[in-house]
Design a protein that fits this description.
By secondary structure, the protein is α+β, with helices and mostly antiparallel strands. It is about 15% helix and about 35% strand.
């Protein structure tokens, strides 16, 4: 079983992440108060705890998951290219997986080698489009359909 273990958003571009234990996620704003939540293929980003741990292990360091700047952290699920077009259900929320969250130069600035470590096997997570408005909570069950 997969679980939502953390929720974060960026209230201001290039500023630190804000962590919350619950959040409203809407079709019009993504994760409530997130700077990048406007409707698009990249409205919400989701990352796997297991894939993040692989990255940290490869870099021989322990970085907080927020270094990646994803909105949601899930445990018990790893993302692959085959997941594009599938529906990720988090509690009552439905997200369509639209693609890979490509690592950018900001990751290299955050930690040397991070951009390259995120590139293989979709370790940087996935981008999603919000399909319905819902409130999510840490601990919600996550299903991939």
């Amino acid at each position: 079983m997969s679980t939502l273990i953390a929720i974060g958003f960026k209230p201001i571009k290039q500023q630190p992440m804000t962590l919350v234990t619950k959040a409203n996620v809407t079709c019009s704003h993504g994760v409530e108060q997130d700077f990048f939540g406007r409707p698009s293929k990249r409205q919400v980003t989701v990352m796997s705890k297991e894939q993040w741990q692989t990255v940290c292990s490869e870099l021989n360091t322990l970085l907080p998951w927020t270094t990646r700047r994803a909105n949601l952290l899930v445990e018990g699920l790893s993302f692959t290219p085959e997941h594009v077009g599938k529906i990720l259900e988090i509690g009552e929320l439905k997200l369509e997986i639209t693609g890979e969250t490509d690592p950018c130069k900001k990751m290299e600035i955050a930690h040397a080698g991070l951009e390259a470590a995120l590139r293989p096997d979709w370790r940087g997570g996935v981008t999603c489009r919000v399909l319905n408005d819902a409130e999510i909570f840490e601990g919600d069950t996550v299903q991939l359909n």
